[in-house]
Amino acid sequence: MPIVIKICGLRTPEALDVSLHAGADMVGFVFFPPSPRHIDFATARLLGARVRGRAQKVALSVDADDELLAASIEALAPDMLQLHGSEQPGFDAGRPVMKVLKIRDGNVPDADDWPDPIMLDSWSLDQRGGTGRTWDWDLARELLAKRHVFIAGGLEPGNVGKVVSSFKPYGVDVSSGVEASVRIKDPDKVRAFVHAVRLSEILN
Question: Which fold does the domain 4-203 belong to in CATH?
Answer without folding.
Answer: TIM Barrel (3.20.20)
